[in-house]
Write a structure and sequence with these properties.
Length: about 500
Amino acid sequence: MIRILIFLIYVVFFAFVLTSLASLDSRITGEAFGWKFDGPSSWILGVIIAAFLIAIYGTHKIKDIMATPGKIKAREAEARRARGVAALTQGFEAVAVGDAADAARHARIARRNLDDVALTRLLSAQAAQLSGDEQAAQESFSAMLEAPETEFLGLKGLYLQAMAKDDRAAARQYAERAFRLRSGARWAFDSMLDLCLERGAWGEARDAVLQAKRNNLIAKDAADRAMAALLSADAYAAAASDDKTAALLEAEAALKLAPGLTPAAALAARLLTEEGRKGRAAKVIEAAFSADPHPALARAYDSLYTDEMPEKRAERLRKLAAKNDAAREARSLEARAHILLGEWGKAVSKLEPLMTQSPTAMEYRVMADAVAGLSGPEAGRRWLERAAAAPRDPRPGAEGEFHFTRAGWALLTREYMDHSRLAPPPLEDAVGMSAEEIRLLTAPPAPDIEEAAEKEEAADAPSADSEESQEKSAVEAVAVPPPPDDDDDHIHDDEEADRAAAAARKVS
């Protein structure tokens, strides 16, 4: 519609111009370049306008003719680029399916048709890797470092090559350079962090985590957990070198970021106890147990008050259990409190639900104490046998102590940062017990009928051995005179001899 309107405006304009020229009655006379002219004004002005239009049209055509070679070159370049892009596409498809020969062929086609494109270098490197030519791949990746737009891709390729060769020093250099170049790249952060953890560079790992946190590469809570784990590793290293002040400061800093980190809480509680600050140590354990109940925390808490009366210790155990009463560790604590008070039946009742839900060796041992008090040592011994056969608690420090190697701290840091746990769960859970099995094991053992009958017969009828022992004791009871000395004048005294014989006859 707009185009029609514009066309009509042009028609009206030219009609107006022609009408105006035709209405002119004057004449134009003049001389130019030795030529004299005289004619109507309308004709002369029309000729001038026509000449102007012809000049514009001719100039445009001349310009098109002069631009023809450039257009031809541009079409050729576009065709080459199309062939190169098609070769790149087919080459990367060949890499994806593992066809090394086809990938190398398309890489050559792409290099011929594309002028120094980053993707051609990348395709060449990947084709070389696929064909097993690591030297050519390294050369291609190294060439990519020279251009800013391909430097990052080249660093990643060289890093992967170094890791494949187990060249950790070179891999660390490439990862650090890539992380400095693009600190928002996840693979660069993961590579940097893993290499720092591998060699125990906890400080450098913390710097990498902080940078990733600033760039929103990882969530704030995940970054805080990673920082807490790394601070705990430093704290244990300081404690091992007998720098208890630094160890306590770093452990407390870790707990500010992650109050439920059990290794940090256990270390801080131990160091505070050594300083005589039991109250502060108890608060640290209570806060950690409230966030994440762990058997090591229960052991550490109970060890604070071993010198107190059983009633007071039981009260403290109940206080800790109340911090997280939904956890199974809380039930175990309540059962131990009942055991301290001699309430064996209540302790068994608290532990019975745990026995049906993948019980641990420690829970079996607590049950053994409760059952021994309720039904006797023999009944408790059966639960101890269960404890010996039970699988270990998969959680680190379940026995109360944390002894991590450098590799252990690296695994813990990754696991705690990513999943908020100290270690991955076991592949298979322990099998629980049925209610009937629990009832049978908690019952007192039945007496042996044959053994009881033998004991009763022995009590009612004395045996021949008992008569012989009585006679022997009677003989021994007779006063036998001591052997006479050499100077004894009465050795042949008849009266003494008669008395000895009479006593012997009486006994017989």
